[in-house]
């Protein structure tokens, strides 16, 4: 499905649920992170790509706040100042609260959401929702937020309201993505530059849904903060864990307990892999990029302990059938694996992965491909 179909689905859902046409709408993409996993909340670089799959959010004026999503088609009326419900509507409520804080929220609205971004697959379905909602609701209020404001509203909705303590990579790529490119985003400095992304990226879903509010991601962030605090006793000027030079890594590891040493080793080596991946993409060397994906996955599996057996099986199968490389993408503990292969090998590699996975788990994983898509945009919603 295209971004237009997501928006049209949302508009149809709005008409069916609320009996009226939406006034305005927006769509925002999910993302796949090529490399740079868990570096964003450690001040390091990331290299995400926007998916062609998108989330459509359409809105109309209302006396209160009524929401509906294609996930379950159930209408929800919310009090945005009441405790959160621990469900999908929390992300919209979080956006509304943050928009109210800057005077950019409408007085009320009817909101309908439809998405082709898989949920719980590590492809940032939540950022697609929050970015799309921030854009659509601010337009309904007569405000045109800057890209910086959109990122800030969407990020704060997840971090401060819902309580998922990630970084800002997901919201940044969802807002700033350009068709045909990856985005090198250096989170410590805020600098961004596009890098050509040729060809297609294959997504193989593990079928294991991760729940970021379950605590694993927050625990890893706390571990990284603890490691940084310890290392600052030796390097007082060390602002972020990702700033630690590779040349100092062995000294740093000797100062830390085993589990914090592993987390630190992943962050520092992953930071180096991001810049190496940019060089590989810039020179068109997809084989080298594939090698970096594989070493990055091994680091996630061993040092960050955020992989799962299903993801490991997919990576092993991809390599056995001739892929350039593959790795778990997203926060981890389930989700999806990204895979790169030569165009003439893609079909055989995907078929091989599916066969090996079925032999191991008795089911075939979902698989699909994407090219690098564009960022958030206003959508036409009138019939």
What is the fold's blueprint, element by element?
Blueprint: H1 3-18, E1 24-33, E2 45-46, E3 48-61, E4 65-69, E5 75-78, H2 89-101, E6 109-115, H3 125-140, H4 147-162, H5 169-176, E7 181-186, E8 191-196, E9 201-205, H6 216-231, H7 249-254, H8 258-282, H9 286-304, H10 309-320, E10 325-329, E11 336-340, H11 346-361, E12 367-370, E13 377-379
Parallel strand pairs: 4-6
Antiparallel strand pairs: 1-3, 1-13, 2-7, 3-6, 4-5, 7-8, 9-11, 9-12, 10-11
Helix pairs in contact: 2-3, 2-4, 3-4, 3-5, 4-5, 6-8, 8-9, 10-11
Question: What is the rounded Rg?
Answer: 21 Å
CATH topology of the largest domain: Ribosomal Protein S5, domain 2
Quote the beta fraction.
15-25%
Distance between the termini: 19 Å
Low-confidence stretches are none
How much helix is in the residues? 40-55%
Number of domains: 2
Structural class: alpha+beta
Give the H and E element order. Answer: HEEEEEHEHHHEEEHHHHHEEHEE
Q: Going across the major beta sheet, what is the strand order?
A: 5-4-6-3-1-13
Mean pLDDT: 95
Shape: globular
Number of helices: 11
Which CATH architecture of the largest domain is right? 2-Layer Sandwich
Largest beta-sheet characterization:
6 strands, mixed
What is the CATH class name of the largest domain?
Answer: Alpha Beta
Beta strand count: 13
